[in-house]
Design goal:
Order of helices and strands: HHH
Shape: flat
Distance between the termini: 42 Å
Strand content: under 5%
Number of helices: 3
Oligomer: single chain
Number of strands: 0
Largest sheet: none
Radius of gyration: 15 Å
Mean pLDDT: 77
Length: 75
């Protein structure tokens, strides 16, 4: 089966970030969301998920070559 060479499809994007911080943070985020158990720790879990999302956005920007990727506000 031939692989797509376009950057628009999901498999191409996954290949581009393989072995990078983006892949590590995506895996971490999946674990935090999928393994989440409702209960007393919801606020703490939500803060951790938001923090991971913020780190993921910066890592993606850096991988795409955006200068000063950490500049800005996350809300």
């Amino acid at each position: 089966m031939a692989r797509c060479r376009r950057s628009c499809c999901r498999s191409c994007s996954a290949e581009k970030f393989r072995g990078t911080e983006v892949e590590e943070l995506t895996t971490l985020l999946r674990k935090k969301v999928i393994w989440h158990q409702p209960g007393n720790m919801d606020n703490e879990d939500a803060r951790e998920v938001l923090s991971t999302l913020q780190r993921l956005v910066v890592a993606i920007d850096q991988e795409l070559g955006i200068a000063d990727a950490e500049i800005g506000e996350f809300r």
